Amino acid sequence: MADLAGHVRTAILDARERDAAPMAAFFYDLDALASHARTVKAALPEGVELYYAIKANSDTPLLNTLAPIVDGFELSSGGELDRAEACRVDKPWLLSGPGKLDSELEHAVAMQVSAVHVESLSEIDRLAAIAHTKGRVQPVFIRINPALDDAFSTRLNMAGRASPFGIDEAQLPEAVARVDARPSLALQGFHVHAMSHQKSAERHLALMAFYLTRWPEWQALSRTPSSVTHLNVGGGIGVDYTGSDLFDWPGFCRALADQLDALEHRPVVRFEIGRFLSAFCGYYVMEVLDAKQSHGEHFLICRGGTHQFRLPAAQNHDHPVWHLPRQMATTGPWHDWTVVGQLCTPKDVLSRRQALKNPRPGDLLVLPLAGAYGYNISHADFLCHPRPALHYLPAHAPQRVTEASP
């Protein structure tokens, strides 16, 4: 367990001692989250902003931890607007995403969000009418779906092809003219988010270069180009769940600084990063209920499952697993084990081919990198199992006490 920080291990064992029921729980190391976020932000070039995309994990203790560090929050629903309002540190918010309800736009305008990312021509019209009714000039970004070649493709493409996200670049002149014609709207910039879960810094730099090449043409479409100041380049920075190939963020930021320095009129670049900020702080802990063999394969049946930690199934990978035995003197042979949960489906698999030494019922398995797109995207009510406990470390901070999930 060399990779598990001592204070996290202690918190896990203390939590198990307090509850006789088999454990299925999440632990979030908020100090580690804050340290990582400060490192990410410090590497950014001057004049580049860091927003947190709260869809990755919108738990209030995480937002309270990140709020003093990041420049703002990116939100994608009315529910996320409510989460941001509950945050104890006031920061700028922006609202993005397709299919916004009128009620969500009204809420955003009333909250005076720093920007709304409009995703269609009709959304421009609806937002303009709402802002006019509320007597507000609402800053907007137009989300662009540009034409991209295959070099920019990933497993999760958000642009460059037919997509519900954004406005095709061919329609951009009409979209800009429509915003400019509305007194209740003010075009502040553009938003392009083409790729998610990108693990290659080199490929992501090429994408940034493409955006920055197009920037002067996009900006010039406005009747007042000087007022169009921002380029939101989304997030999409990936995490290597099955290896040690960490995205070279410092090198990426240095090269991005060179790209920006080469521009005559550089935009204010804004990142909205989720996974790469919060993934590393989280751990999902499962107690082994049974160990068995079937047709030559070894299985560990554990408390919980993919209905609580959906990430491995959603990403289609075998998640790393650390073994925390109840009795530290573990003897017996090593085997490759398939780690599963309690669900009545063969898809309830969190990891295959994990080499573990003699795991037994009562032992704990720790799945790291569980701080983003884990519990918050899971179908927690499936089979009516109790929801996992959520523990926030350190527990002495007022907003970071251990909480039971709703």
Automatic annotation (TrEMBL):
List, for all copies, the residue spans of the domain called Orn/DAP/Arg decarboxylase 2 N-terminal: 32-279
Q: Which InterPro entries match?
A: Ala_racemase/Decarboxylase_C, De-COase2_C, De-COase2_N, Orn/DAP/Arg_de-COase, PLP-binding_barrel
- What protein name does the entry list? Type III PLP-dependent enzyme
Q: Name one Pfam family in it.
A: Orn_Arg_deC_N
Name what cofactor the protein needs.
Answer: pyridoxal 5'-phosphate
Location of the Orn/DAP/Arg decarboxylase 2 C-terminal domain? 280-371
> Which UniProt keywords are listed?
Pyridoxal phosphate
- Keyword Glycosyltransferase part of the UniProt annotation: no
Keyword Secreted among UniProt keywords: no
Q: What PANTHER family does UniProt report for this protein, alphabetically?
A: DIAMINOPIMELATE DECARBOXYLASE, GROUP IV DECARBOXYLASE
**Superkingdom:** Bacteria
- Family that this chain belongs to: Belongs to the Orn/Lys/Arg decarboxylase class-II family.
